[in-house]
Design a protein that fits this description.
The chain has ten helices and no strands. With 173 residues, it is mainly α.
């Protein structure tokens, strides 16, 4: 067994349950979460030589798991994803009417979210969909807690503005 195989095997034993739990909360489907967990470790194996070791293996694996899961959600479950993003309307400051309009047509929400910077999308997904704490989000994204807070504030503001433009366009366009 070479170094790659032994390290991936060790990481699997250490982290597969944690990664599985992260994914199952996002996709709400135990079998799909199992498949995405497997895909995470396959990608880690294939990209082992790219792991620069400037972060912990756990952080690197969570980045892979996050990307694999987000790709799956984007392809398979966009409506459910976007309803989760807005389950707590108070934080976004949107009216109940705006939330209703947005939920009725998640296409606009998908477009608005897809137009955000990648850093905004990542923070919204981890904090609002998965429910990670600020500290956990900082660990996964390998940044400071204050950066997560600031990015979340800016991301929600940007998303709100994009959605208000969409709502205004459809009401008055």
């Amino acid at each position: 067994m070479d170094k790659r195989e032994s390290e991936i095997e060790q990481w699997y034993r250490q982290y597969h349950q944690t990664i599985y739990k992260y994914i199952v909360v996002l996709v709400k489907d135990p079998q799909q979460a199992e498949d995405l967990t497997h895909e995470t470790f396959v990608k880690a194996y294939k990209n082992f030589d790219r792991f620069r070791r400037d972060s912990s293996p756990k952080t690197w694996l969570f980045r892979i798991a996050h990307n694999v899961t987000v790709d799956y959600i984007r392809k398979m479950k966009p409506i459910q994803l976007f309803k989760e993003v807005f389950r707590n309307k108070g934080e976004q400051g949107l009216s109940a009417e705006e939330i209703f309009i947005i939920k009725e047509n998640s296409e606009e929400l998908f477009v608005a979210l897809s137009e955000l910077k990648d850093s905004y999308k990542q923070v919204i997904l981890l904090r609002k969909v998965k429910g990670f704490s600020i500290e956990e989000t900082a660990l996964i994204l390998n940044c400071s807690e204050s950066k997560v807070k600031a990015t979340m504030f800016r991301a929600l503001k940007a998303l709100k503005e994009k959605l208000k433009k969409e709502v205004t366009f459809y009401e008055y366009g």
